[in-house]
């Protein structure tokens, strides 16, 4: 894979950034991702850049819109970026990956997890976030270990949500479990609560958008005395961000979600966490670490010469040693794997996280 190398006459080495920074995108996720990318670039430039040339991020807001993202890819390619990086929403990342592959522009996906990021094998696309089939299997293991065999999902139409529901079903059914789906296009939160009572499910997973209908569903379930023992979960990670706790308060605690951090950060992770905390004015999410690690990977790739080769990457990130390989059923170059945790907010102190299970 050839890509233009930086030269001493180039003012900067430009990297195109795709992040959701406006609604209906998850703005807080986009802000954390961008903060990680910016911190990584600052440190690369302080270390001499790429062959003496500084990195520059050219940022475009996707607003969780695949068409807008594809247009941004075309624009950034026209500006001569050497690579693309970012994106949080899986449906958008799929559109970006397809266009980047067609144009022959390297794309490092930092945070979207859907397995089928590309329709077929691609030499241009790599990902550092764990594939959905890996992370959601860990979540299914957590459910089984906690005694949940009859699981309900409140779902909206999306290839990402449908993929998640299928992964859960494939993991639970062999162990005597089942997955009952409720279509939130047709149900109010109150009707969902009645359906949960009738289904005899012991866990409800939110496979829906945020803030709505997720917030209304959580509030309604929490206030229904018939569902006092119901576990409410959000495997896609919505409770990771401070906005969740700010909107839902105590109702947002005890909602297990997937987080891609180790149980203990190493020296690099601790240093980066401090830098991210200063930049964000609060605790960084795992998405911020993904952004930083993405820059570490791209800097390593760009320093290697004139060709982008994901298979040659071997760098230390904030969450472990990063290298890429081909996985079955996954068409992109994949880091196998970032650490995976199932975490929730402590009901006694909603600002504190509890690790419930480690994959």
Commentary on this structure:
With 359 residues, the protein is an alpha/beta fold. The chain has a 7-stranded mixed beta sheet with strand order 2-1-3-4-5-14-13, sandwiched between helices. Strands 7-6-8-9 form a 4-stranded parallel beta sheet, with helices on both faces. Strands 10-15-16 form a 3-stranded antiparallel beta sheet. The N terminus is likely disordered. It is globular. The protein has 10 helices and 16 strands.
Distance between the termini: 34 Å
Strands, total number: 16
* Poorly predicted tracts of residues: 2-9
Estimated share of beta-strand residues? 15-25%
Name the overall outline. globular
Helix content: 25-40%
H and E order: EHEHEHEEHEHEHEHEHEHHEEEEEE
Number of helices: 10
How large is the radius of gyration?
20 Å
Give the strand order of the largest sheet, numbering strands 1, 2, ... along the chain.
2-1-3-4-5-14-13
Structural class: alpha/beta
User: Mean pLDDT across all residues, rounded?
Assistant: 95
Largest sheet: number of strands, sense, barrel closure: 7 strands, mixed
State the gist of this model.
The strands form 4 sheets. A 7-stranded mixed β-sheet has the order 2-1-3-4-5-14-13, sandwiched between helices. The chain is an alpha/beta fold.
Describe the SSE topology.
Elements: E1 13-19, H1 27-46, E2 55-61, H2 66-78, E3 83-86, H3 90-103, E4 107-109, E5 125-127, H4 132-145, E6 150-155, H5 159-172, E7 178-183, H6 189-199, E8 203-207, H7 214-223, E9 231-233, H8 242-248, E10 257-259, H9 267-280, H10 286-303, E11 315-317, E12 320-322, E13 324-326, E14 333-335, E15 341-346, E16 349-358
Parallel strand pairs: 1-2, 1-3, 3-4, 4-5, 5-14, 6-7, 6-8, 8-9
Antiparallel strand pairs: 10-15, 11-12, 13-14, 15-16
Helix pairs in contact: 1-9, 1-10, 2-3, 4-5, 6-7
């Amino acid at each position: 894979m050839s890509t233009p190398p930086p030269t001493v006459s180039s003012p900067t080495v430009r990297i195109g950034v795709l992040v959701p920074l406006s609604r209906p995108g998850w703005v807080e996720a986009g802000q954390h991702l961008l903060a990680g990318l910016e911190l990584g670039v600052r440190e690369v430039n302080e270390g001499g850049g790429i062959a003496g040339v500084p990195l520059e991020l050219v940022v475009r807001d996707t607003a969780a819109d695949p068409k807008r993202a594809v247009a941004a890819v075309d624009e950034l390619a026209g500006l001569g970026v050497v690579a693309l990086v970012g994106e949080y929403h899986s449906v958008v990342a799929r559109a970006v990956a397809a266009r980047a592959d067609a144009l022959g522009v390297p794309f490092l996906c930092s945070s979207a997890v859907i397995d089928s990021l590309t329709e077929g094998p691609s030499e241009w696309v790599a990902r550092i976030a764990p594939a959905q089939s890996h992370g959601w299997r860990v979540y299914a293991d957590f459910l089984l270990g906690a005694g949940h065999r009859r699981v309900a999902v409140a779902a909206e139409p999306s290839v990402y949500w449908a993929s998640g529901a299928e992964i859960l079903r494939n993991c639970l059914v062999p162990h005597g479990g089942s997955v009952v789906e409720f279509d939130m296009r047709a149900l109010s939160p109150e009707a969902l609560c009645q359906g949960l009572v009738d289904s005899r499910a012991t866990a409800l997973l939110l496979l829906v958008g945020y803030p709505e209908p997720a917030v209304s569903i959580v509030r309604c379930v929490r206030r229904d005395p018939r569902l006092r023992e119901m576990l409410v979960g959000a495997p896609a990670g919505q409770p990771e961000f401070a906005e969740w706790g700010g909107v839902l308060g105590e109702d947002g605690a005890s909602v297990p979600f997937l987080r891609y951090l180790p149980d203990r950060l190493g020296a690099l992770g601790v240093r980066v966490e401090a830098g991210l905390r200063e930049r964000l004015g609060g605790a960084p999410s795992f998405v911020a670490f993904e952004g930083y690690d993405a820059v570490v990977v791209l800097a390593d790739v760009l320093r290697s010469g004139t060709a982008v080769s994901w298979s040659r990457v071997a760098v230390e990130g904030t969450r472990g040693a990063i290298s890429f390989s081909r996985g079955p059923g996954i068409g992109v170059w994949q880091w196998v794997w970032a650490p995976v945790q199932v975490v929730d907010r402590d009901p006694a102190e909603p600002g504190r996280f509890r690790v419930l299970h480690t994959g």
